Amino acid sequence: EHASEALPGALPQGQNNPRICPYGLYAEQLSGAAFTVPRSKQRRSWLYRIRPSVTHEPFHPAPFPDVQMTADFSTSVVTPNQLRWRPFPIPTEPVDFLRGITTLCGAGSSARKDGFAIHVYAANASMTDSCFANADGEMLIVPQQGSLRILTEFGIIEVEPTEVCVIGRGMRFSVQLVDDASDPPAVRGYILEVFSGHFELPELGPIGANGLAAPRDFLTPQAWYEDRECSYTVHHKLEGQLFSASQGFSPFNCVAWHGNFTPYKYDLKKFCPVGALAFDHLDPSIFTVLSVPSAIPGVPVADFVLFPP
């Protein structure tokens, strides 16, 4: 459970949804799981906003159909061959994070809440007065080139190469490029999207109480907000299709929040590896940073694994 407030006293005390919230804010619950799942699997956060998130125009199909994202692999080409590819080129025309996403491969379907997708992104422009929310699944963002400044409803996350960031299902976020040595600025990296479950720390088993990724090293953002009226576009992905809606204010107007369903980041340099000290190679599962469990015990939907130097 985490909590943060950008103004003192903005978090209600003793209840989640008082009749009148401090500062006249609106209370909203963001659910990352069904209401009746076991307590250990429950994911939810309460956000206290200046304006309700539902105050927007109706959604319509997004006006840029050239985005190459897929969320249903039931009819995709299947191959048993090993594949590799060169780094995706940085666009020559202005392309932001959302428009720069291309799906490489995957399995399952977001409509059935089963499987995953692997994307790459390549961009050279910040998202301006626009944000993205993914109703299909949770996204693990892995920068390979260039740093990202990610605005979320919970606060700001800055992530650079050797760090990773997780954005939960349905969370609105906007990606800005951080000034660096490249001219013009450019970013590139990978995205692992899972259609079911959440990224979790793997069980340690015989390793013991310590090792691999430590829970304390996963950082959640501090509450931050902007009370700004503007012409804003919210992009929403549902079953692989992109929709857009207009609203007259920034969605990042959450003054305070508390809960356990939040975006977070992790510095891979803090990973504590375990290795073979006498002979042979141990299985690569000992290098698991985050895992998404499936309905079958011990069989993950996807693992994110680090092979340290």
Describe the structure.
The chain is an all-beta fold and 309 residues long. It is 0% helix and 39% strand. The strands form five sheets. It has a seven-stranded antiparallel beta sheet, with no helix packed on it. A hairpin with a 2-residue loop joins strand 9 and strand 10. The radius of gyration is 20 Å and the shape is globular.
Number of helices: 0
Physical arrangement of strands within the biggest beta sheet:
5-6-13-8-11-18-14
How much is the radius of gyration in Å? 20 Å
- Number of strand elements: 20
State the distance separating the first and last CA atoms: 33 Å
Extract low-pLDDT stretches: none
| Percent in helix | under 10%
For the largest beta-sheet, the strand count, sense and barrel status come to:
7 strands, antiparallel
Order of helices and strands: EEEEEEEEEEEEEEEEEEEE
**Which of globular, elongated, flat, extended, rod-shaped describes the shape?**
globular
Strand content: 35-45%
Mean pLDDT: 93
Structural class assignment:
mainly beta
